[in-house]
UniProtKB/TrEMBL annotation:
NDH-1 shuttles electrons from NADH, via FMN and iron-sulfur (Fe-S) centers, to quinones in the respiratory chain. The immediate electron acceptor for the enzyme in this species is believed to be ubiquinone. Couples the redox reaction to proton translocation (for every two electrons transferred, four hydrogen ions are translocated across the cytoplasmic membrane), and thus conserves the redox energy in a proton gradient. This subunit may bind ubiquinone. The keyword Transmembrane helix applies. It comes from Sporichthya brevicatena. This is NADH-quinone oxidoreductase subunit H. It is a multi-pass membrane protein.
Length: 448
């Protein structure tokens, strides 16, 4: 048999089994063009909306006015900011690697666009008489494609920090590398439970598998880990360490200006939309209506174009969560941030995967797993409690042990240097402020 005959046979088998993947790959070219242009336009428009939405929401939280000049109620402020950035002078530092410096923001924005190609927005509908699914495409490994595309966007940040030829952007790029490794690993582990329950990595099939119960409820620990990891993955507050202005001026984009600077923010806000859409797809039933609406109240709520409304409502709720975190939580210290990823999220994810894999194996063998689930949940909660108590006890300093005092000479380099915490200045002459015993010098000692 030829390759074409094998492909036709696979399609017929998939169609006979009711696989949702059989719905893709049969659209006419102009339908595919319409869907690609629609996704691009949607991401551009929702980025402009998200910027204004964020500024208005944060100003409301902080009891400020917010943007109110450009357009009705300040609704065109983000468009005005984009035009302003495009008209600014484009500066490239002399020490920069010019080719990589120019390509880096393009990589960051392009990777964010690609990830949205496999997000299901709605069911099969009719467009100008042609039946098509409201999704650009789907593959058996669609979720892995999203991870790869989001990683490509992070590479743009890393390359931007390296190619700028400056210290602070380089530190921001290094932080972004460590952040990507840590939190993308935790994010990938949170997907494993979804794969085990749905039996597929296809986004359309994962949405279909949640028709009875959303995975945000059935797999609550995975959902919580994913929500925390997606904030770290998108460099949003309180995890915006690669661009910490209090420490690194502007981080990886310190040397950027004009349209290149705008591309980084475009990529960030599109990544915000993409991970929010991914959370909706994997844990909140995708485009399916919430239970009271999609159940007995309105049986036709998941048909035609109505599911687009449910998808957009869930998406905006997640976007508001990002904005709420920015207006509420302060930025974490970098060591706390890395400890959260490696010491909390990843161990919890691994333990949760072992638990649900055991439950699935026992269920497949016909065992009653209700009591096993309760016992395993109790053991897991006890382990988490013991771990937390151990961390608290270890971090508490001993009260009977005095803190060590480090002595130093503030005039050793020829210039007075203020003491660091825990240090006591030592004076070898009358010019110092303290004696070697750490007590204040008397008047007679200074006169001497």
């Amino acid at each position: 048999m030829t390759g074409l005959q094998f492909a036709q046979q696979d399609f017929l088998l998939a169609d006979a089994d009711g696989s949702h993947l059989a719905q893709f790959g049969h659209d006419v070219w102009w339908i595919m063009l319409i869907k690609c242009v629609a996704i691009f336009a949607f991401l551009m428009v929702i980025t402009l909306f998200n910027i204004v939405f964020e500024r208005r929401a944060v100003s409301w939280m902080q009891q400020r006015v917010g943007p109110n000049r450009t357009g009705p109620q300040g609704s065109l402020q983000s468009l005005a900011d984009g035009v302003k950035l495009m008209l600014k002078e484009d500066i490239i530092p002399k020490a920069a690697d010019k080719a990589v410096f120019v390509i880096a923001p393009i990589i960051s924005a392009t990777g964010a666009f690609l990830a949205f190609a496999v997000i299901p927005i709605g069911p099969e509908v009719s467009i100008f008489g042609e039946k098509t699914v409201l999704q650009v495409t789907d593959t058996p490994i669609a979720v892995l494609f999203i991870l790869a595309a989001s990683s490509a966007a992070i590479y743009g940040i890393v390359l931007a920090g390296w190619s700028s030829g400056s210290t602070y952007p380089l530190l921001g790029g290094l932080r972004s590398t460590a952040q990507m490794i840590s939190y993308e690993l935790a994010m990938a582990l949170s997907f494993v439970g979804v794969f085990l329950y749905a039996g597929s990595m296809s986004t359309s099939e994962i949405v279909a598998a949640q028709s009875d119960l959303w995975y945000g409820v059935a797999l609550l620990p995975s959902f919580i880990v994913f929500v925390i990891a997606m904030v770290g993955e998108t460099n949003r507050p309180p995890f915006d360490l690669p661009e910490a202005e209090g420490e690194l001026v502007g981080g990886f984009h310190t040397e950027y200006s004009s349209i290149k600077f705008a591309l980084f923010f475009l990529g960030e806000y599109i990544a915000l939309t993409t991970v929010s859409a991914l959370a909706v797809t994997l844990f909140l039933g995708g485009w399916q209506a919430p239970w009271p609406i999609g159940g007995p109240i309105w049986p036709g709520a998941n048909e035609n174009w109505w599911p687009v409304l449910w998808f957009m409502g869930k998406l905006l709720c997640f976007i508001f969560l990002f904005i709420w975190l920015r207006g509420t939580l302060p930025r974490m210290r970098y060591d706390q941030f890395m400890a959260l990823g490696w010491k909390v999220l990843i161990p919890v994810s691994i333990g949760w995967i072992l638990l649900i894999a055991t439950i699935q194996a026992l269920r497949n063998e016909g065992h009653d797993v209700q009591n096993i689930v309760l016992v395993a949940a109790g053991v897991l909660a006890a382990l988490l409690l013991l771990t937390w108590v151990w961390e608290v006890v270890r971090a508490k300093p001993a009260e009977d042990e005095p803190e060590p005092v480090a002595e130093f000479d503030p005039f050793a380099g020829g210039y007075p240097v203020p003491p660091m915490p825990g240090q006591v200045p030592v004076t070898t002459s009358g010019a110092g402020l303290r004696s070697s015993t750490g007590s204040e010098p008397g008047r007679g000692e200074l006169d001497a």
